[in-house]
Design a protein that fits this description.
about 400 residues, alpha/beta, Rossmann fold, 3 domains, 5-stranded parallel β-sheet, globular
C-alpha cells in the first residue's frame, strides 16, 4: 500500500518527490507544501513515469481526486507501491485548512523548527472577518455569530458544573480533559491559536486510533464527504463503508466524487435519516439545502424523509461486523445514543461522535456514554476556529491494547 500523508505537516522535510498530474488540486497541494516548507525536495509536476525512472530514489506523490485511477495506471506501469505516496486533503470541510487558506497562503507563518504554524493578530482578525466573526477583544461590535462560542451558555455550564467536571475527569488523557474545560471559556483568539496549532497536523475523525484494512464503517452523516477518500483508501479492497444520509450523495464535493465513483464495491448508500424510531421525519433544509437538520430554527424550508433506528438499519443491511461508527447528523446525536449504545455493546466498534450541534452536547453526550459504555476510553478532538467540529472518540480498551502491543 502506498504511503499515506493525511496532513501537510506529516510530509517529511526534504523528501525528494514528484507531484503526479497538473490539475488545480495538484497545484493546490504544491502551494500548501511550499507555504509549509515542504518543497526542498520537489522535482516538478509529471504525467509520465519516465522522469521518476531516471530518479527512482524520489517518491511519486498523488494529490489529485483522480488518484484511484492514477494509482491503478502506475501499478500497471510497474511503479512499485513503495515509491508512491498519497497526499489527501480534506476538500469540502469548511473548517479544514484547504478551504480556509487556499486563497490566503500568505497568512500562514511557520515557527519553531518548521512544524508549527502561527498567525499574526492582524491576519487572525482578517480571517475572522472573512468568516463573518468579529473579535471579542478588538474594540469592535459584538460577534456576528455569538452562537459560535460557548460564552453565551456560561450560566448553563455553571449550573451543570458537576456533570461537566465528571465528563472532563473521565477523559482518557490530560489534553482531552483540559480541552473540554477550555472550550467552554475560550474567546475567539484562544480558539484560533489552538486551531493554528492543530489544523495542519491532523484530520477530523482520524485521531487516536488508526483505521485498519478490512474495517466495516458505519458513516452516519455525509454531506460533502470529505472523510470518504481517507476511509476508502484505508479500508482497502476487503473493507466496507455504509453511508447513511437522507440526502445521499447529492452534495459530494467535486474532489470527493471521483474517488467515490472509483470504488463502488467498497460503498453502500442508505438514503434515510438515522433516528430513534422507524417511519418518517420532517427535517429542516439548511446551508442551501445541503444539510437536513433536526435542530435549526432559521430554516425556511423543510422536507419529510424516511427514518430508521440504528438497529433496524444494521439488521436490514445485513451488517454482521462493525468496526467503526462516525456520527455527525446535524443535531440528532443525542436521540441516537440508546441505539448507539446497543450497537457498541453488540459489535464493540470505535466511535467518533460530533458533540457540538447543541451547546450542551459537549457535556451531555460524553457524560451519557461514560456512564453506560463499559471498558471504553474517551478522548476529545477539536477541529475548528470556533466551538464547532468537536469530536468525542470512544475506543474499546481491547483495541487500544492490541494497537499498543
Amino acid at each position: 500500500m502506498p504511503l499515506l500523508l493525511k496532513s501537510p505537516l506529516e510530509f517529511p522535510v526534504g523528501l525528494p518527490f514528484f507531484l503526479w498530474g497538473r490539475d488545480e488540486y495538484a497545484h493546490h497541494a504544491e502551494s500548501f507544501l511550499r507555504a509549509l516548507g515542504r518543497v526542498d525536495g520537489f522535482k516538478g509536476f509529471i504525467v509520465h513515469p519516465a522522469p521518476w525512472r531516471a530518479d527512482p530514489q524520489s517518491f511519486l506523490v498523488l494529490a489529485s481526486p483522480s488518484w484511484p485511477r492514477d494509482l491503478a495506471l502506475l501499478r500497471r506501469l510497474d511503479v512499485p507501491d513503495e515509491a508512491l505516496a498519497l497526499f489527501l486533503m480534506p476538500w469540502g470541510n469548511p473548517h479544514g485548512y484547504c478551504e480556509l487558506f487556499k486563497d490566503h497562503l500568505n497568512e500562514i507563518t511557520l515557527v519553531g523548527e518548521g512544524n508549527e504554524v502561527s498567525f499574526s493578530l492582524d491576519d487572525h482578525r482578517a480571517i475572522l472577518s472573512r468568516l463573518g466573526i468579529h473579535s471579542l477583544h478588538a474594540g469592535r461590535e459584538p460577534m456576528v455569530n455569538q452562537g459560535a462560542y460557548y460564552v453565551i451558555w456560561a450560566d448553563w455550564f455553571e449550573r451543570y458544573g458537576e456533570q461537566t467536571r465528571q465528563s472532563a475527569e473521565a477523559m482518557g488523557d490530560a489534553a482531552s480533559r483540559e480541552l473540554l474545560l477550555s472550550l467552554i471559556h475560550w474567546n475567539p483568539e484562544d480558539y484560533f491559536v489552538y486551531y493554528a496549532q492543530r489544523i495542519f497536523h491532523s484530520v477530523q475523525y482520524f485521531d487516536f486510533n488508526p483505521i485498519r484494512p478490512g474495517e466495516v464503517i458505519l458513516n452516519l452523516g455525509v454531506e460533502s464527504g470529505f472523510e470518504l477518500p481517507y476511509f476508502l483508501h484505508l479500508v482497502g479492497d476487503e473493507g466496507q463503508i455504509h453511508n447513511v444520509d437522507p440526502l445521499g450523495d447529492d452534495f459530494l464535493h467535486p474532489a470527493v466524487r471521483p474517488v467515490v465513483e472509483a470504488y463502488p464495491e467498497r460503498l453502500t448508500w442508505h438514503r434515510v435519516a438515522a433516528m430513534d424510531y422507524d417511519g418518517e421525519i420532517e427535517l429542516a433544509l439548511v446551508d442551501a439545502g445541503r444539510q437536513a437538520s433536526l435542530r435549526n430554527f432559521d430554516a425556511t424550508e423543510s422536507r419529510s424523509f424516511p427514518c430508521l433506528t440504528l438497529e433496524t438499519l444494521v439488521n436490514a443491511a445485513g451488517i454482521t461486523r462493525l468496526d467503526r461508527i462516525k456520527l455527525d447528523v446535524e443535531g440528532a446525536e443525542e436521540r441516537l445514543l440508546p441505539g448507539l449504545l446497543h450497537l457498541a455493546q453488540r459489535f464493540r466498534p470505535l466511535l467518533a461522535i460530533s458533540v457540538y450541534h447543541a451547546a450542551d452536547h459537549l457535556v451531555v453526550i460524553p457524560h451519557y456514554l461514560m456512564h453506560h459504555l463499559r471498558d471504553y476510553d474517551f478522548h476529545l478532538g477539536h477541529y475548528s476556529f470556533c466551538r464547532y467540529e468537536t469530536v468525542l472518540y470512544a475506543i474499546p480498551r481491547e483495541q487500544r491494547l492490541a494497537v499498543e502491543s
